[in-house]
Amino acid sequence: MSNTEQTLSIIKPDAVERNLVEEIKNIFIKNGLKIKESKKIHITKDEASEFYKVHQSKPFYNDLCSYLSSGPIVVMILEGENAVLANRKLMGATNPKDAEADTIRNLFGISIDKNSVHGSDSKNNAKQEIEFFFKI
Ligand code: CDP
Ligand code: MG
Hints:
- The protein is α+β, with helices and mostly antiparallel strands.
- It has one domain: 2-Layer Sandwich (Alpha-Beta Plaits).
- It has a four-stranded antiparallel sheet, with helices on both faces.
- The longest helix has 12 residues.
- The structure holds cytidine-5'-diphosphate and magnesium ion.
- Cytidine-5'-diphosphate binds next to loops.
């Protein structure tokens, strides 16, 4: 049975800065995820703090919010079969050092904070995160 889903992907400042946007988009497309919406934006630290509020008790929260607002990012709605999990698999583990071969974070991630991409981790969070960036 098919299970078409949407999920939110973000190409983080480290990857935008290194001109990796098209290369990362091609990984999604080649692996069957359609890019339904895409926009390049530069968010404020307040907006980043709201987006990442689930992590507000974590020691890395302040740096994470400063980082996400430090430069342009590309936010996308990806759509496809089991898109939430499919995107997480293409991203690889949070720490690029642990990311499986040929995953985006393995190929492009610099460090645990500059790990090139964000992806929603559940269908419910995907819906909320898409609403956050696309107000739909
Ligand atoms: O992004 P992902 O869902 O894989 O990881 P997370 O646990 O939801 O953490 C969100 C983001 O916080 C990560 O992508 C990292 O950029 C950052 N982080 C960090 O800077 N230091 C950590 N020890 C853990 C996460
Ligand atoms: Mg997460």
